[in-house]
Amino acid sequence: MKARVVVTLKSGVLDPQGKAIEGALKSLGVEGVSSVRQGKVFDIELEAADGEAATQTLRDACEKLLANMIVENYAISYE
Amino acid sequence: MSRPLRAAVVLFPGSNREGDAARALRQATGEAPAIVWHDEHALPAGTDLVVLPGGFSYGDYLRCGAIAGRAHIMDAVRTHAAHGGLVLGICNGFQILCEAGLLPGVLMRNSERRFICKMQHLRVESNATPFTRRYQSGQIIKVAIAHGEGNYMADSETIAEIERDGRVAFRYCDAQGHVGGPGNPNGSMNDIAGVYSAGFNVLGLMPHPENLIDPLVGGVDGRPMFEGLAAA
Hints:
The complex is a heterodimer. Chain A is built from two helices and three strands; from the N terminus they run βαβαβ. By secondary structure, chain A is an alpha+beta fold. Chain A has a single domain (about 1-80), classed as Phosphoribosylformylglycinamidine synthase subunit PurS (Mth169, Chain: A, 2-Layer Sandwich), CATH 3.30.1280.10. Chain B has a nine-stranded mixed sheet with strand order 2-1-3-4-11-10-9-6-7, with helices on both faces. Chain B has a two-stranded antiparallel ribbon with strand order 5-8. The chains are: A alpha+beta, B alpha/beta. The interface of A and B includes residues 13, 40, 64, 66 and 68 of A.
């Protein structure tokens, strides 16, 4: 199975990189952008045969390493 | 303690301040510390103090300190700390301690986004710990900072708890000792530069006391930390 994990900052956590990108877009003349938040994408191939086992593995991966649960959330999706 | 303090400096791929930490420890204790590779499963027998040095462990991949915080040696460091052993994490070492769950909170990107490398004043909050016993409570010291991710953040309950228990070790301040405002270089909550564990045996701080131990390089305000530890 192929999965995609997206890790994003929790709302309210300051994201200086997102702010810088937002500013750069404005200076490039890209209009209509009200805010930018930067996150991380992990494309993961899994040995698991079924969705439940895969989700368990990915939750484990996120909570042990991929996300810092103090300031980040994660979302799992499958191709 | 009748014998000299036995210190161990943990070396991760990408550490770069281990030599500075070792020099400061040697100056204070008279003995060179053990250098321990991150993939080891145990600390040298009789280790009193573990130092996690500054640097860019694993190239800061994923998050600063995230991968190092899960290295084999960290299980031994966790056990050492649980038995009351002393642990000092400096800069990347502080980030590693937070990622390993040995200290609360997280170090985020500096609020102004820049890597900051400069001299910085700190207020020593209390001298009641092995790390600060050779300072005065409220003393203003001048040490170096060099980091891109030193913006200390934790949820409001955690901040309230560490403030209530007196676990803030150092706060950023200006030369006159004023805390708050422009003395804070990186946006850290409550101007926090260093934090203790609940047992006060684990300290993480972003500034580099190990770099201020020789008048030749601009000051000796870091020396009392290592002298205090040597007297532990």
